Structure to design on (397 residues):
């Protein structure tokens, strides 16, 4: 069966699950589900939220815009058709896409063009700051958690939920949509809700979005049953470490024939040398005692699993203090560290001179490792724009 392609405007509209506002000034919360087509829970959660807001005519500041990501992949219930749509959102990727003729587009290129139009329209409208939230689910059972680029507004929004916060995932995954919004100075958070087909995943993602609406100062706590929503998240995520940091990503390709050992769920503790998986070369064992994250139990995907470790409260407080004192801006004064001339958000670290400055120190200052430039380590960080920095300050917990 052949289908006549719809005009561009209709295609764009199809992504929109719903918009809600009461005409009161405030931030924009752009909430996206289904950037991966086998993750329909986020879309379902957003449908419920828009419905509940409309039914209750709930008073809200600002505007909620709920969208679905990869429409053809959602129809086929597959993570993607040609390529992962949650990649290639770096500046260079977008430039390349826009310079190329749409005739050469694969399914995801076309989806990316449509989403890009929506993102830009939201950014242009966001006079009072903007929060982007990307809702995901996974192939394994597991507790809900948030992941984010480590800016202070992102931290504050994520901390409003009683679930673990995962730092450093975005350092491993280049060009995710979240990165696009961080780069624009907006707040940007990913929420992982649990297993794809588990109905509780929809409940948790819904609870996460309610929390963000409150934390961003858009909804009053009493406008919804926040305590009930909190209990939903706390039931599965409350007993886990508050903040963990990704230390290792096990990258796989199809040729690896990677098969995860059964029974792992996200944030399960594993010992050094513990058997985690098999691939064509044999056994895959854990390189260290850690917590396993996002073990892969589906065909598509390039991450076998991640390993992470809890970050102690002491370091979190110290890093908040250092940033409050604006010491993060002075990192380039340290020995062996220099500013990138063409990009003020990046620094180069000479590992021979700055040997004692472990990567962790730069992480705490909000920098993320971006790779190597010659023999030097390239670290980059993003600052939230001023509107974002003020988000929900009066009401956030
Ligand atoms: Zn996903």
């Amino acid at each position: 069966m052949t289908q006549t392609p719809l005009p561009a405007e209709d295609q764009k509209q199809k992504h929109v699950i719903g918009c809600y506002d009461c005409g009161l000034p405030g931030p924009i919360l752009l909430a996206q589900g289904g950037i991966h087509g086998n993750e329909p829970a986020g879309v379902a959660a957003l449908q419920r939220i828009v419905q509940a807001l409309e039914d209750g005519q709930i008073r809200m500041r600002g505007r909620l815009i709920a969208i679905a990501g990869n429409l053809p992949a959602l129809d086929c219930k597959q993570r993607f058709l040609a390529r992962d749509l949650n990649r290639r959102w770096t500046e260079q990727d977008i430039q390349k896409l826009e310079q190329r003729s749409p005739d050469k587009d694969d399914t995801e290129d076309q989806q990316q063009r449509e989403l890009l139009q929506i993102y830009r329209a939201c950014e242009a409208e966001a006079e009072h700051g903007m929060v982007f939230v990307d809702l995901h689910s996974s192939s394994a059972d597991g507790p809900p958690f948030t992941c984010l680029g480590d800016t202070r507004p992102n931290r504050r929004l994520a901390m409003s939920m009683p679930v673990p916060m995962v730092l450093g995932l975005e350092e491993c995954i280049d060009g995710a949509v979240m990165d696009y919004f961080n780069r624009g100075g907006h707040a940007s958070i990913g929420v992982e809700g649990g297993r794809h087909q588990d109905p509780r995943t929809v409940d948790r993602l819904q609870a996460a979005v309610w929390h963000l609406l409150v934390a961003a100062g858009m909804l009053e706590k009493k406008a919804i049953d926040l305590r009930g929503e909190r209990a939903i998240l706390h039931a599965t995520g409350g007993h886990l470490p508050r903040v963990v940091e990704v230390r290792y990503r096990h990258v796989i390709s199809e040729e690896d024939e990677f098969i995860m050992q059964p029974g792992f769920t996200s944030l399960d503790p594993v010992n050094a040398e513990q058997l985690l998986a098999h691939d064509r070369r044999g056994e895959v064992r854990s390189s260290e005692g850690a917590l396993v994250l996002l073990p892969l139990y589906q065909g598509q995907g390039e991450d076998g699993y991640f390993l992470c470790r809890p970050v102690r409260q002491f370091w979190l407080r110290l890093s908040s203090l250092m940033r409050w004192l604006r010491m993060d801006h002075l990192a380039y004064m340290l020995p062996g560290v220099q500013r990138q001339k063409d990009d003020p958000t990046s620094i180069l670290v000479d590992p021979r001179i700055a040997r004692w400055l472990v990567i962790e120190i730069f992480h705490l200052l909000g920098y993320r490792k971006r790779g190597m430039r010659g023999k030097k380590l390239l670290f980059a960080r993003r600052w939230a724009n001023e509107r974002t920095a003020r988000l929900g300050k009066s009401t956030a917990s």
